[in-house]
Task: inverse folding
């Protein structure tokens, strides 16, 4: 349950620090009350957004195919930062169509990165997939080969996909 | 001897560390003559002690000027006790300058980026952070051509900032401070030093942005294209008019 700013200020610093610990907020050991309260409120907002997104997903009917389910969620995804490049390798020339190539995707979300399999997914589909995998919670517009694209854009071999993470605002 | 004019804008959590490290480094580089200008309209307060480096309570530029003067005799130091605004920026920054931007708002980043994009030669290194992560952007412009994207090119939050300049804020707004960590500020300052070293000493302009994340102990640098822009000629005087033809 979320606590209001007033409720938080009614608590002692040790109680607030315990809340921070429970919420996974670090670095508050010697922080002032104002800062601790701000951090908790900020984290509560993030949790609310995550919960809202999870509810939306749960409300959707069971998809008939994986690709359809992924493509359905595009506009409200919340990945904030990713950058990737796609490489396709012809590994099975005699295989049936669709199974000849193996496509891998290097994706980074801000400072995080990883290799992921991608086969002709839309930008929105990839963002949804990576939002889950990378546990990031805000989505910028996808940029393919340096050009902004719609979430429905289907990635081709050789494309480079990037979602930009917002710049740090403080200093 | 090569002369560099280095402007450090913002002397808070990032800038107060950054100017120290840059001054220390160049103080012992015999091939360089450094003019460093410290710019900030804000003042240090006792509550800043946990994550900002300063020796007195006064205007930040004044205090850091005194601190650096006492330590680094080979650096030619000056200071400016104002915030950067669209009205005064042309008096503060000049062609050929190196700008180390360590401010706490996107609007100042937008103002500085826009001004620098009108200079022929400039190196602009900008850092910022949130509570546990941060990033550094590197904008290099040579002979009137962008070598890397501008701060605003891939960052709509900077191109169309939702925040205010410090000069536009009320006292209450200025007093509001979201929590920050010293080690994160220090991480940004260190990456800005790396960027400065790469661009100035190594003459290497490759990466345009780097992100780091403290909890996961990761950092990742990005190579991004300079967007295509329209350049129009001003019929009145023949000067170039830069237009954001491809604003991402």
Result:
């Amino acid at each position: 349950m979320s606590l209001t700013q007033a409720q938080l200020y009614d608590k002692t610093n040790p109680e607030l620090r315990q809340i921070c610990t429970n919420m996974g907020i670090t670095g508050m050991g010697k922080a002032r009350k104002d800062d601790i309260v701000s951090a908790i409120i900020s984290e509560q907002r993030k949790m609310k957004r995550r919960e809202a997104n999870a509810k939306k997903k749960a409300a959707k009917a069971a998809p008939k195919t994986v690709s359809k389910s992924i493509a359905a969620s595009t506009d409200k995804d919340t990945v904030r930062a990713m950058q990737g490049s796609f490489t396709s390798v012809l590994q099975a020339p005699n295989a049936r169509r669709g199974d000849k190539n193996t496509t891998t995707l290097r994706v980074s979300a801000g400072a995080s990165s990883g290799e992921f399999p991608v086969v002709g997914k839309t930008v929105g589909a990839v963002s949804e997939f990576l939002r889950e995998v990378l546990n990031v919670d805000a989505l910028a517009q996808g940029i393919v080969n340096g050009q902004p694209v719609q979430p429905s854009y289907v990635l081709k071999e050789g494309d480079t996909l990037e979602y930009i993470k917002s710049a740090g605002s403080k200093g | 001897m090569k002369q560099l004019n280095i402007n450090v804008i913002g002397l808070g959590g990032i800038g107060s560390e950054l100017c120290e490290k840059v001054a220390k480094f160049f103080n012992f580089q015999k091939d360089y003559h450094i003019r460093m200008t410290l710019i900030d309209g804000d003042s240090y307060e006792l509550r800043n002690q946990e994550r900002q480096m300063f020796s007195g309570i006064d205007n930040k530029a004044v205090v850091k000027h005194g601190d650096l003067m006492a330590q680094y005799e080979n650096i030619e130091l000056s200071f400016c006790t104002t915030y950067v605004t669209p009205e005064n920026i042309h008096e503060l920054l000049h062609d050929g300058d190196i700008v180390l931007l360590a401010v706490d708002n996107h609007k100042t980043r937008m103002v500085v980026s826009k001004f620098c994009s009108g200079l022929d030669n400039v190196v602009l290194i900008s850092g910022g952070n949130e509570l546990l992560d941060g990033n550094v952007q590197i904008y290099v412009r040579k002979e009137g051509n962008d070598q890397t994207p501008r701060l605003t090119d891939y960052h709509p939050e900077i191109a169309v900032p939702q925040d205010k300049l410090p000069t536009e804020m009320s006292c209450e707004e200025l007093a509001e401070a979201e929590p920050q960590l010293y080690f994160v500020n220090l991480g940004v300052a260190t990456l800005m030093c790396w960027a400065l070293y790469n661009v100035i000493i190594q003459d290497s302009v490759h990466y345009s942005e780097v992100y780091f994340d403290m909890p996961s102990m990761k950092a990742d640098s990005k190579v991004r294209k300079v967007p295509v822009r329209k350049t129009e000629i001003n019929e009145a005087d023949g000067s170039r008019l830069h237009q954001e033809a491809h604003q991402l």
Summary: Residues 38 and 61 of chain B are 5 Å apart (CA to CA). Chain B touches chain A through 51 residues (CB under 8 Å). Confidence is low (pLDDT under 50) at residues 244-248 of chain B.
